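Input (Phosphatidylserine synthase):
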Amino acid sequence: MATVKNVSFTDDNTLTTESSVKDDEADFGDEEDSVDSNQEMPSDDDTTIGSNSVGRKISRNEIERIHFRFVNERVVNDITLDALYKPHTITVLTLLTALLLYKAFSIEDDKTENNIYHGLQAVGALFIILSALVFPNGPFIRPHPLIWRIVFGLSVLYVLVLQFTLFQTYDDVKKALTWLDPEGLGMKELKEKEYAINCSDVSVERVWSHMDIFAVGHFLGWAMKALLIRHNIICWYISISWELTEVVFAHLLPNFQECWWDAIFLDIILCNGLGIFCGLGICKILEMRTFHWESIKNIRTTRGKFKRAVLQFTPESWMKVNWFNSSAVKSTLGLYIFIMIWLAAELNTFFLKHVFAIDTSHPVVFWRIILIALISAPTIRQYYVYVTDPKVKRLGMQCWVFCAVAALEAAICVKFGRSQLPAVKVTLISAWILILAIGTIFCVWLSVTWAKQSSLTEKVSLQSGQKRHCYLDSSCENLGTISDDVRRRRKQLQISESDLN
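Output:
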C-alpha cells in the first residue's frame, strides 16, 4: 500500500500528494492488495505505485467528497468493546432467517387481514435489519452508530409509507387506520379542548387550569430544540414565529385559537423560555466538558468501568455552532429555509391529527413526534454543516429524507384536508411568509450585532486584502478565513485534507 507523505495545493485547484512504497512491501501477499496482470495499468495522470517516490494530483472535488464523508459518514475510531463493533452479518442473517421462517410456518390463519398484518411486520423488521447493516452512520456515533442507522432506516420506511398514502383515497386511508385500531383511529370527528374562551377572565385559577400536559410538552420540547439548534436568538425567534403561525392558521384549525396571555406569557415566556434556558445551559456545560473516551478494557476499577459505560450515552464531542459566519445572503437564506421547514413540520403534526381525527393522547401521535425528534438531530447537524461549511457541496441524506417527509406530510394534509377545512386565506398566509422573511433578516442582523458587541468576533485579514469579522470560538466548519487555526483544529478533529498527511 502507498504511504502518503506530503499534501499540497497547486495553482490549478488540485492537491499534490507524494507517496512511497518500500521494496519489502511489494510482495502483495494480501488478497485485497493483489494486482491482476490482465487489468489495465493506470495512466500517467493516476497514482503509480512503485519503489520510488512519485506524485499524485487529487482534485478538489475528491477532497470535498472525502470531507463530506468525514462530516456525514462518521467512523468510530475509539472502539472500546471490539465485540460491539465487529460485523456479525452471518450471525444476523442466520437468526433473522430462522425467526422469519419460524413465524411464517407456525402461524396458520385463514383471515387475509391477519396475514397481511403479519407480512407487513416481517417486511418492516427485515427493512430495519438491512438498514442497520448497509446504511451510513451519519454525523453521530454515540451511543452506537447502529442506533443512528436504524433511525435513518425508520425515516426511509416512514417516507415510503407517506408516498404510498398520498396515492390513496381518504376513505381507504381511514379504513386502514380503523383496521389497525378501531377505537383510537376509527373516530369520524375529533373533539379538542378549546382554549380561547372568556379571555378577559385572568386569574390565578384560570391560568393554572391551562397548565396541563401540553405545558410540560412545551418545556421539554424547547429544551430539546435548544440542544439541537444551540443558538439563543434563533430559538426565541422560532418560538415567537410559531405563536404567529398559530394565529395565521387559526382559521383552519380552531385548536390554534387561544387567549393572548396564554400565548405570550404561558407559551413564549414561561414554558418555551424555561425550555430554551435549560437547553442552552446544558449546551454550555457540554461545551466546557472534557470527554474521556478511554477503553473499558484499560479501566481497572468497577466504578470507572461503570462511568465509562454511562459516557457511551453522551456525545462523543460537542460542537459550538455559529450560524452567521459566512456571507450574509447565504446565512439569511439558509436560516429562512430552515425556519420554514421547521414550522411546516410543526404544522403537519396538528393538521394530520385533525384531518384523520386522531386524538392527541393516541400512541401514534406520540411515536411520530419521537421519530421526528430522532430524525431532527442528525438533520439539523447536516443542514448546519451544509450551510456553513464551504467544502460541503451536497445535503446529507438524513436531511434530504427529513425534507421529503415534511413535503409529503404537507401534501397529504392538503389533498385530504381540502374537503374538510375551511377556505384558505391566501392573503393572510402570503403576509405570514413575507413577515417571516423580514423577521429572518432582522434575526440575522441582531445575531451578528450581538456577537460583535459581546466580543465574540474579531476582524481578520483575508487573502484578498479585505477584512471580515470572524468568530473567535467557532466550530471547525466555520474557520475558513483563519487558515492556521483551520489546519490545526481540523487536524485535531480529523475531518479535512490535513488528515492525508
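Residues 1-54, 288-298, 473-486, 496-501 have pLDDT under 50 and may be disordered.
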